[in-house]
Design goal:
- InterPro entries: AAA+_ATPase, AAA_N_dom, At3g28540-like_C, ATPase_AAA_core, ATPase_AAA_CS, Mitochondrial_chaperone_BCS1, P-loop_NTPase.
- It catalyses: ATP + H2O = ADP + phosphate + H(+).
- The protein is α/β, with parallel strands linked by helices and 472 residues long.
- The protein has 18 helices and 15 strands.
- It has a seven-stranded mixed sheet with strand order 10-9-12-13-14-11-15, with helices on one face.
- It binds adenosine-5'-triphosphate and magnesium ion.
- The site of magnesium ion (MG) has 3 residues, from helix 8.
Length: 472
C-alpha cells in the first residue's frame, strides 16, 4: 500500500511540473493564453462582455504579465512614440525574421526588405518583452508591449525611453536630407506656412572626395562630430547647442561643396537662406525660428548682400557696439538684425543647429560678424595645393601614390608657383566620354597650369610697372 506521504509527494511533484509547464508556456506565449481562454469561453458562452470578464479574471490570476499600449494617435494628435517604435521594430534583425516584406517606394531607390510579423520578441538587460501590432475595429492602430511584472520598472523607466530614442535616431539617420529654400514673403500663408520650400538633397559630395589639406579636413570632421555628440556638453556649459563656420576663399575652391559634404556627413538638412528675398529683420526672424533642429543654415556670399554692406558704416558699427540696439530701419535686413538673431533668439529656440557663412572676400566683412563666438571656426578654402591635387587625381583618374610619376612631379612644381582653383583642376582632369585617359588629362592640366603661370607673371609685371609709374 502506498504511504500517505508518497501520495502527497506525487501530487506535489505533479503540481510542481504543471506549474512549471504553465509558467514556461506563458513565458513563450504570453498572449496566446489569454486569446485561447477567450476563444474557449466565447465558443461556450457566445457573450463577449462576459467572456472578456471571465478571461481577464483568469489571466489576472495566472498571468504575471503587464501590457502597455502605444496608439498611433492620442486625442486626435499624432503619437510620435508610435512611429519611433515602428522604426525601431522594423530595424530589428531582418535577417533573423521568417516573414519579410519587400518594397520599393521610389523607382530610383533600392528595394527595401522589412520584417513583416505582427509579433516581435525583444530582449533588454535579460528581460523578455513582446511587441504586437494591433489594429482595432475602429481601424485605430497601436503597438502593444507585454512584459513580466517583475521587469516593470526596468521596462517603463529604461526600455521604453530607449526604444523611442533609438527609433528616432534610426529615423534621423535614414531620413533623406533636404535642401530647403525660403519663399518670398508674398507667398507665405496667413499662419506663416509656405515660408520654406524643399526638395530632396542628393548631392554626392563627401569629405573623402573634397580636395583640401588632409589634416585640416580631419580637424573639421572631428569638430563636426564633437558638435553632434555634444548635447550634454553644451548643456553642462550652459551654451546653446549651435556652431558657426565661416568658409572663405576664392571662387571654385570648394566652399559650397564643403557645405554639401557637411550635410551628408551629419545627415542634416540644409536651409539655404536667400537674403535678397527677405524684406526686413522681422521676416528674417520668422524664417529662422521656423527652421528645424539638425540643420545647417547657410548664407552664401554674405558680403554680396546689398543691405548688409549698407550697414558697414561707422554709425551702424557704433550702434552694434552698443550691444545690438534695435534697428531703426525696419524695411530691410540689416547686419545687426542678423547678429541679434544669432546671439539672441537663436540661442533660445531650437537645438543642434549649424550656421555657415561663405565669402570670397574675408577682408570685406564687418569684424562684428566674424568675431569668435559668432563664427566658431574660420575655414580657408585655398587655391589647389599638391595635396589637394592628389585627392582630385584619385577621384577623377583613380590614381593612387603616383608621387614618382614625372607628370605628377611637374604638376607639383607648377602648383607651387601658380594659383589655380580646385574647380579648374577638376575641369582638366574630367574624363572625356567617361573614358579615363590619364596622360591626356594630366597633360591638359599641365598646359592649363603653364598658361595660368605665364598670365599671372604678366599680370604681376604690369602691376609692378603701374606702381613704378605712381611713385616715379
Ligand atoms: N576643394 C574641392 N574639392 C573637390 N572638388 C572641388 C573643390 N573645389 C571645387 N571643386 C569642384 O568645383 C566645383 C565648384 O566648386 P564650389 O561650387 O564648391 O566652389 P565655391 O568655393 O563655392 O565657389 P564660389 O565662391 O564661386 O561659390 C564643384 O562642383 C567641384 O566639382
Ligand atoms: Mg559657392
Amino acid at each position: 500500500m502506498m504511504m500517505m506521504g508518497d501520495t502527497f509527494g506525487t501530487i506535489g511533484s505533479s503540481l510542481a511540473s504543471l506549474f512549471f509547464i504553465w509558467a514556461t508556456v506563458q513565458q513563450i506565449f504570453p498572449n496566446h493564453f489569454k486569446i485561447a481562454i477567450k476563444e474557449f469561453l466565447l465558443s461556450s458562452f457566445h457573450q463577449l462582455g462576459f467572456a472578456q470578464r471571465v478571461s481577464d479574471y483568469f489571466t489576472n490570476i495566472f498571468s504575471p504579465y503587464v501590457d502597455i499600449n502605444f496608439p498611433e494617435s492620442d486625442e486626435y494628435r499624432f503619437n510620435h512614440a508610435f512611429s519611433a517604435i515602428e522604426t525601431y521594430l522594423e530595424s530589428k534583425a531582418t535577417n533573423k525574421s521568417k516573414h519579410l516584406k519587400g518594397s520599393q517606394v521610389k523607382e530610383n531607390k533600392d528595394l527595401v526588405l522589412k520584417r513583416d510579423e505582427a509579433k516581435i520578441r525583444d530582449e533588454y538587460k535579460g528581460a523578455n518583452v513582446w511587441w504586437e501590432f494591433v489594429t482595432a475595429s475602429d481601424q485605430e492602430r497601436s503597438f502593444k508591449l507585454t512584459f513580466h511584472h517583475r521587469a516593470r520598472s526596468l521596462i517603463t523607466d529604461s526600455y521604453v525611453p530607449y526604444v523611442v530614442e533609438e527609433g528616432k535616431l534610426i529615423k534621423a539617420k535614414k531620413q533623406q536630407t533636404r535642401l530647403v529654400t525660403n519663399n518670398p514673403s508674398s507667398q507665405w500663408g496667413v499662419f506663416s506656412q509656405n515660408m520654406w520650400r524643399s526638395i530632396e538633397f542628393e548631392h554626392p559630395a563627401s569629405f573623402e572626395t573634397l580636395a583640401m589639406d588632409p589634416e585640416k579636413k580631419e580637424e573639421i570632421m572631428s569638430d563636426l562630430t564633437a558638435f553632434t555628440n555634444g548635447k550634454d556638453y553644451y548643456k553642462k556649459i550652459g551654451k546653446a547647442w549651435k556652431r558657426g563656420y565661416l568658409l572663405y576663399g576664392p571662387p571654385g575652391t570648394g566652399k559650397s561643396t564643403m557645405i554639401s559634404a557637411m550635410a551628408n556627413f551629419l545627415n542634416y538638412n540644409i536651409y539655404d537662406l536667400e537674403l535678397t528675398a527677405i524684406k526686413n529683420n522681422s521676416e528674417l526672424r520668422k524664417l529662422l525660428t521656423a527652421t528645424s533642429s539638425k540643420s545647417i543654415v547657410v548664407i552664401e556670399d554674405i558680403d554680396c548682400s546689398v543691405d548688409l554692406t549698407r550697414n558697414r558704416n561707422k554709425k551702424e558699427r557704433n550702434s552694434l557696439e552698443r550691444n545690438g540696439e534695435q534697428d531703426k530701419d525696419e524695411s530691410s535686413v540689416t547686419l545687426s538684425g542678423l547678429l541679434n538673431f544669432i546671439d539672441g533668439i537663436w540661442s533660445a529656440c531650437g537645438q543642434e543647429r549649424i550656421v555657415v557663412f561663405t565669402t570670397n572676400h574675408l577682408e570685406n566683412l564687418d569684424p562684428a560678424l566674424i568675431r569668435r563666438g559668432r563664427m566658431d571656426m574660420h575655414i580657408e578654402l585655398s587655391y589647389c595645393t599638391y595635396e589637394a591635387f592628389k585627392i582630385l587625381a584619385k577621384n577623377y583618374l583613380d590614381l593612387n601614390d603616383h608621387d614618382d610619376d614625372p607628370l605628377f612631379k611637374k604638376i607639383k612644381s607648377l602648383l607651387k608657383e601658380t594659383k589655380i582653383s580646385p574647380a579648374d583642376v577638376a575641369e582638366n582632369l574630367m574624363t572625356r566620354n567617361h573614358k579615363i585617359d590619364v596622360d591626356g588629362s594630366l597633360n591638359s592640366l599641365i598646359k592649363a597650369l603653364e598658361e595660368k603661370k605665364s598670365s599671372q607673371s604678366q599680370h604681376d609685371e604690369d602691376k609692378k610697372k603701374n606702381k613704378f609709374r605712381l611713385f616715379g
